[in-house]
Amino acid sequence: MEKTRLGRTELMVTRTSFGALPIQRVSFEEAKKLLVKAYDNGINFFDTARAYTDSEEKIGYALADVRKNIIIATKTTANDRKTLLEHLETSLKNLKTDYVDILQLHNPYDLPDPDDPESTYAGLLEAKKKGMIRFIGITNHRIKTAMEAVASGLYDTMQFPLSSLSSDTDLELVEQCKKYDVGLIAMKAMSGGLITNAASTFAFLRQYENVVPIWGIQRESELDEFLAMEKQPPVLDETLWKVIYKDREELAGNFCRACGYCMPCPAGIDIPLQARISLLLRRAPYQQFLTDEFRKKMDRIPECIDCGNCRKHCPYSIDTPNLLKRELDSYNEFYSAHMQS
Fold first, then answer.
1. Would 250 be classed as within a structural domain?
2. Which residue, among 194, 196, 187, 192, has the nearest Cα to 215 in the 3D structure?
């Protein structure tokens, strides 16, 4: 399997890597089957987070025996040195290892003060000094913050949403990371499931040698698809460009990327799913959304208390409550049309 250098870490990681957020939705045995198959087929880079419920535990359960052969990145949502070190201790226990290769600050709104002895950055330095981590990373959904982090020289890796839908502004991060020799990890390469032709975004990102996509994998069929593309990488030809242009046209505007930073919702609304239901109805098998159970979920939208939490935490500054109302109208129209036909 083809590998690439992850910036100044000098880590040689597989260009097809494993995003372990979705395995929190499957059993330990199902997760083990996926992780072991990925490893057996050459994938050596696995990305998880302390916030992904039992994802770290599943990686430890499945891959502890081959720890020396793999590269693990995890994340912390800590806001101070003490909490970061506590999170890291938990991560190490879950992963059944005494170090992680990359510890990433998990989407901070502001960059920590490197001179503050109680900051998260001070915690990262302490963890590195103790041998608990090898490299320092950061993730973000805000291009301005991401560019500043890379230029600061304080971070070895940057994780950022990149896909065939990425704007020219977001893609400037590719050159920024190359300039400062920062490893660039691409999350949300399928744009939360809205990109339905995996070959198009796979080929689009493959043109950038310093970009390492971590594909979120939950099913064996998904893993098989990425393994097949790795063996015979799709060419970014006129056919795939047509797919990309069509996706960009249909998904133009400020749509929900399903990052989940708006959650939990006190009204019980599944915002990452329900705030983009009109898109999913067009781009995914829609029958799953026409059940009585799902309709009851959509009926929670009018119960929104407008607490402002989702608006405040959205990295894309989406007016989520109003978007949800529009999505409910679209859903009701679609539901009525299809249930009457």
1. no
2. 187
Q: Which of 243, 258, 293 is the last residue of a domain?
A: 243
- CB count within 10 Å of CB 184 equals 24
For residue 51, give its domain range.
Answer: 3-243
Residues 296 and 227 in one domain: no
Q: Which one, of 73, 69, 156, 154, lies nearest residue 115 by Cα? A: 154
The string of pLDDT tens digits covering residues 159-195 is: 999 999 999 999 999 999 999 999 999 999 998 888 9
| pTM for the model | 0.89
In a domain, 264, yes or no: no
Q: How far apart are CA 214 and CA 46, in angstroms?
A: 8
Residue type, 315: P
129-164 pLDDT, tens digit per residue, is 999 999 999 999 999 999 999 999 999 999 999 999
Query: At 148, is the secondary structure helix, strand, or coil?
Result: helix
